Amino acid sequence: MEKGGKGVRVTSWRMGHDQGPRRAWPINPDAASRLIKKAERPVLVVGSAIEEVDGLIDIAVRVSKTGIPIAATGHSIKFFADKDVDVAEVNVVEITNMLTDPEWEGLDGQGKPDLVIILGVNLDLTNQTFSTLKNFTDIPGLNISRYYNTNATYSFPNLDNELWLEYLNQLCEKLESE
Q1: SS3 per-residue string spanning the chain
Q2: 117 closest CA partner among 154, 73, 172
Q3: Which CATH number characterizes residue 167's domain?
Q4: If pLDDT is split at 50, 70 and 90, which confidence band does 5 have?
Q5: Is residue 14 part of a domain?
Q6: Residue pair 44/50 in contact by the 8 Å Cβ criterion
Q7: pLDDT tens digits, residue range 109-166?
């Protein structure tokens, strides 16, 4: 994070992703856990990049075990086959479009998600998903991936792998504690 005037300014990992006057609030694991616990119908959108860093599949499973369903995109569904978690297979573009549909009742038919959390989805797809949510819905987006995303409502800052895994483990610990 760069010092910027009175507060802290976080910049997007990719220069072209800094668009518009509204930027994501940088968030830490404690604030992220409070935000998730406050949501009534959060959903975790997981991409195939979770296989690229050891421990991410276990993080997604831990988050899901707290009652948050997983929308598995790409080929990530295969990582949850034997994990006993609530998971649905869906394309990133498809779920993004469904979230903009006022008639859609969610993955389980019980109601639209009120918080979209993204982990391990391609950076450009993540950016476009959050841009769509920001501009065409009232659903907040939480980016818990490694790179800060300006189009999310809330986002972890840019982190190295070690600190990112620490953030994710702290988030899981806070979600698991009741």
Answers
A1: CEEECCEEECCCCCHHHCCCCCCCEECCHHHHHHHHHHCCCEEEEECHHHHCCCCHHHHHHHHHCCCCCEEECCCHHHHHCCCCCCEEECCHHHHHHHHHCCCCCCCCCCCCCCEEEEECCCHHHHHHHHHHHHHHCCCCEEECCCCCCCCCCEECCCCCHHHHHHHHHHHHHHHHCC
A2: 154
A3: 3.40.50.1220
A4: very low
A5: no
A6: no
A7: 999 999 999 999 998 899 999 999 999 999 999 999 999 999 999 999 989 999 999 9
This prediction's pTM: 0.88
Rg (CA), the chain: 15
What tokens were used for 97? 């479009």
- Please give the tally of structural domains in the chain: 1
